[in-house]
Specification:
Blueprint lengths: L3 H12 L6 E9 L5 E8 L5 E5 L4 E9 L2 E4 L7 H6 L6 E3 L5 E2 L3 E4 L2 E4 L8 E2 L12 E7 L3 E10 L10 E10 L3 E10 L3 E2 L3 E3 L1 E2 L14 E3 L4 E3 L12 E2 L11 E2 L10 H6 L3 E5 L9 E7 L5 E7 L3 E5 L5 E5 L5 E3 L4 E6 L14 E2 L5 E11 L2
The chain binds beta-D-glucopyranose (BGC).
The site of beta-D-glucopyranose has 10 residues, from β25 and β28.
Length: about 375
């Protein structure tokens, strides 16, 4: 009698099709006002694991395979407190306008909109309380044979941080069995507005706590030009060829090779790299490769594809050792970099950069894919 129960259970287990991708919801602490912060963990059969928080739609953990096994490749905090005290945009979904708007103002259809100057004299990443500092709603969690996903939604009211139009935003994270993490940022508006949503993960492909500098990792950006900036990091409007400069990453290049070239004013303004590379002049139908990063030590590689025309490569220049992140690790310059698919910074004030405009009836969409692999 006793042995029959396990036998029947084993049969039942065999007849249930295996769910390769899993999506699991769990608690991740609470906000000072008492609201609970939930997280969703996506995993696949290759051992990849991604934890995304409903707070800021933040990628808190991203475990990816290498020759040394599976390690966490993004900076962040163990608990919600860190994200509240020193957010640094670690892993965050940023908006309404990722990157800078010069003078914290723009004009649309003859009306000038004043934004918060949270990066004096400019507006950075959506203002004082951008999308990275909101609790998003978990609208859908699903898993299936070849992928697992979660969708977060957020409503940003008309006038939020100075921007016009009520914006309905969604962020869908999908992890596939082919080791791709996709993020689909979508939005609609009820009045003309401007928009630029992206993800602000800080990557170190040797591992977020490895102590291996990103300066020893290798980057490729297939862009012939970049947008130089002034001393407050606002693009001048110029498209400058990368040829013959420290900004030429068209073939795989060690990140640290040219970052200290003191005669390059652009590297001084950015304290290193903090610039937008121009991969195409406008968003594309489908996807294009924007960057590939690799860590020679572990063989871990990550290619970033998107429909966006630009990519901000920020070499983590403002990480100064004042922040203690996951596993008690102090984060310092060189510990990680950001690669942010986007339209070009300050586009609302630069007609030569194209358009950041979103009208009622249109759907904004930034599709980003982080494709992980292991080289020999
Ligand atoms: C910007 C940096 C800024 C950082 C803040 C990046 O996207 O390019 O200038 O300091 O975000 O985390």
């Amino acid at each position: 009698m006793n042995y029959r129960i396990p036998y029947v259970m084993a049969l039942a287990a065999c007849s249930t099709p295996a769910l390769a991708g899993t999506a699991q919801q769990e608690a991740f602490g609470s906000l000072p006002d008492g609201r609970q912060v939930e997280a969703v963990v996506l995993s696949n059969e290759n051992g990849m694991r991604v934890r995304i928080l409903a707070y800021g739609a933040i990628v808190q953990e991203l475990e990816a395979p290498g020759r040394d096994g599976v390690v966490d490749v993004v900076l962040g905090y163990d608990g919600i407190e860190g994200y509240l005290e020193a957010p640094n945009y670690f892993g965050a979904s940023v908006g309404r306008y990722a990157n800078r708007i010069g003078g914290a103002r723009f004009t649309l259809d003859g009306t000038t909109y004043q934004l918060a100057t949270n990066d004096d004299p400019n507006s950075l990443h959506g203002g004082e309380k951008g999308f990275d500092k909101h609790l998003w709603h978990i609208a859908d969690v699903s898993s299936g044979p070849d992928k697992a996903s979660v969708t977060f939604t957020l409503v940003s009211p008309d006038g939020d941080e100075g921007y016009p139009g009520t914006l309905e935003v969604s962020a869908t994270y999908t992890l596939t069995e082919s080791n791709e993490l996709a993020i689909d940022y979508q939005a609609i508006t009820d009045a003309p507005t401007v928009i630029n949503l992206t993800n602000h993960s800080y990557f170190n492909l040797a591992g977020a706590s490895s102590g291996v500098s990103i300066l020893d990792q290798v980057l490729t950006i297939p862009a012939d030009s970049f947008t130089p900036v002034d001393e407050v990091l606002i693009p001048t409007g110029e498209f400058r060829p990368v040829e013959g400069t420290a900004f030429d990453f068209r073939s795989p290049t060690r990140i640290g090779d040219r970052i200290r070239e003191g005669d390059d004013e652009q590297l001084r303004f950015g304290r290193g790299y903090d610039h937008n590379w121009v991969v195409s002049s406008a968003p594309v139908e489908g996807l294009q490769s924007l960057a590939t990063m690799s860590d020679p030590g572990s063989g871990r590689t990550m290619e970033i594809l998107s429909n966006q025309p630009g990519i901000q490569f920020y070499s983590g220049n403002f990480l100064d050792g004042t922040v203690t992140g996951k596993d008690g690790t102090i984060y310092r310059m060189g510990d990680a970099l950001c690669l942010e698919p986007q339209i070009f910074p300050d586009t609302p004030n630069k007609p030569e950069f194209g358009s950041a405009r979103l009208d009622p009836g249109e759907t904004y969409h930034n599709r980003i894919i982080y494709r992980f692999a292991v080289s020999d």
